[in-house]
Amino acid sequence: PGAEQDLLPPGTEVTPDLAERFAEALADRTGALPDPVALLRRPATVEKVAERLRPYLEDTGTGKGTGTGTGTSTGILRPLPGGGARAPLFLAHPAGGTTAVYRPLAQRLGAPGPGRPCVGLERLPELPSVSERAHEYARVIREAEPEGPWTLGGWSYGGLLAQETARLLTEAGGTVRALVLIDTVLPLPAPGLPPLAEARRRFAAFAEYVEATYGHPLPLPYEELALMDDAGQVDLVVKALEQAVDPPAAVLEHQRTSYLDLRSGERHTPHPYGGRTLLLRATQEGASS
Questions:
Q1: In 41, 59, 130, 287, which residue has its Cα 20 to 30 A from 168's Cα atom?
Q2: Do the beta carbons of residue 162 and residue 154 sit within 8 Å?
Q3: In terms of domains, do 175 and 87 share one?
């Protein structure tokens, strides 16, 4: 069903048994343990159920998360489902999102036996640069695991954060056992472009994507965008997107935070890091990969 369609056929009675089975199926996939009856209260559209489930997936200290990982959520560190006796793997958030995306990985690494717990490093919107975030991550990692050695990783933009954090930990005299980068690339700026051409470079492909995906054009005032900073640009584009296709609020917020994170990646200049590093790159597209 689409985001605004009801998950249940018309006339379906939401019995306690149905709600329990639905919540259990979600728990198996996500590790979240929401209130079953509240989850399926009307309207039970995909969008509404997702909104009710989101606090359980994106817990950063509210106490609603599952707490099944290692340690306690601090607002920056998020224990992920799994567990185990080995030293934790710290995973930095991808662009625009939370470390909830690592739940399937954490559950596999924390399988019965000598599993490895995973701890997410959550997004810090008040710190705009890769370097600033990495300094804060290094600080909280040292507080959580003072002795080390540490293992760090990240997917996409998260790999940039993990690399800089590993470098700072090593620079301060600590030991990083391994740095695991998952499909990490460095987004490069296009130096020398005039402001109008730069605005088109940043947003023209996105406008084409929106039209191809939603079937509606996304007219953008590139001359106006050229005069704005990053935050102003993305706010204007998100407003235009909302007016053009009216996607769910979560989609709009993800577009905004993704853009700001990727722009911080463009501004980041990685420093040399000589520690043990593993780069994992996908070789196939699709769910089977």
A1: 59
A2: yes
A3: yes
